[in-house]
Amino acid sequence: MTHLACGLDFGTSNSTLAIHAENAPRLLPLEGDEVTIPSAVFFGTEPQDAFLVGRAAMRAYVEGATGRLMRSLKSILGSSLIEDRTQVYKRRIAFSEVIRLYIAELKARAEIAAGAPIDHVVLGRPVHFVDNKDEADAQAEATLLRIAREIGFSDVSFQFEPVAAAFDYERRIDRERIVLIADFGGGTSDFTVVRLSPDRNVADDRARDILANGGLRLGGTDYDRTLSISAFMPTLGHETLQTRGDLEIPAGPYWDLSNWADIHHLYDPKRLIEIRHTRQVAQRPEFIDRLIHIIEERKGHSMLIEVEAAKIALSSAPAYQAALDWIEAGLTVTATRDSFERTTARLRERLRGASLACVAESGLTPEAISAIFFTGGTSQIPNVREAITHTFPDAQVIDGDRFGSVGLGLAIEAKRRYG
């Protein structure tokens, strides 16, 4: 029986898995005909919802199934939370086990689609799982390595995600180019300066062509959080005042509600008691009532889904109105691109600085970059793109497959390493 090698891109927001077949990389369908799958799991209280992944997990939650939705699992890698246990229905389960269950499901689905066992894998990884913490970064990779072996991969190796994206782009060039790969994902932003050539794409060793790697732990979820805090949370009472003095309402619940990984903290009964106490001293108690409603109905993820929809809409529209009737009849929130860009200006500057640092590490000047290759869903945000295109104005701008380039490039690398 044929045993295959694959490239696996486990992303903060979405994941893909690809194999190399018939002289080309190919993404495998992981959810119906879809080759991308949201990095989401749902643990339900009913047998039919016991464990769902991807769009099915999101759908079960939105349609009101009782259970626990978990997203942005990758962001836990490298943190102290990775072996902490969280309540899932009637049992407690480690976050690392949740990741294992998710990736195991991807492997099983991919093997069905490929019609053969997949034993070898090149896993994508960001340049930095955690900024400026080498030990935590090594722990994150070690956790993924352990999980991959536990679910049945006999050979496991890693490649930086932007390097993988470079290999996907290299298939389409007709001359040597010095390229800045800009991979903007849900949790990280990664850069690679690489020399690409149609004559080099079959070489076994590409180390000398990779001139520099860089990145930071900043991605689409940071933009979600900023938009949530600035545009959505005020209607729930954020930055309103207490009745005594000029003290603001405590901000903690609003930050938890704006971060995928922290929402579940709000469902602790002690937190709800604290928020009810806050309502008693609030100048605008009706705003706090909205927050309490979200927590009581366990609809925290629904709020961030609304925020994410607004973020996506603002990539192509000057304003977006979110209908929040599920909180209160007639309630709406309007977000504008101008305001979004003002509140995320600091993020933009961090991205610009990281891209310049990567090019400086390569020993080249910005003028030496002949092309910018964008990939990752967050690359569609206008001020994210502008942070890079304005920094390298002479470079040609190329858009890759937003969600597939990394997975395809990892499959190319898997073919190179495992045959």
Structure overview:
Helix content is 38%, strand content 23%. The chain is α+β, with helices and mostly antiparallel strands and 419 residues long. It has a domain at 221-343. The longest helix has 20 residues, at 95-114. It is globular, with a radius of gyration of 22 Å. The two termini are 15 Å apart.
* Residue share in β-strands: 15-25%
Helical content stands at 25-40%
How many E-type strands? 18
- First and last CA, distance: 15 Å
Q: How large is the count of helical segments?
A: 13
Main β-sheet description: 6 strands, mixed
- What is the arithmetic mean of pLDDT? 95
Radius of gyration of CA atoms, rounded to a whole number: 22 Å
Spans of at least 5 consecutive residues whose pLDDT stays below 50 are none
Q: Rough shape?
A: globular
Structural class: alpha+beta
Task: Write a compact overview of the structure shown.
By secondary structure, this protein is α+β, with helices and mostly antiparallel strands. It has helices at residues 54-62, 95-114, 134-150, 161-170, 220-232, 252-257, 269-280, 285-296, 300-313, 337-343, 345-362, 382-389, 405-418; strands at residues 4-10, 14-21, 24-27, 37-38, 40-44, 52-53, 67-71, 85-88, 91-94, 118-125, 155-160, 177-184, 189-196, 210-216, 319-323, 332-336, 371-375, 396-399. The protein has a domain at 221-343.
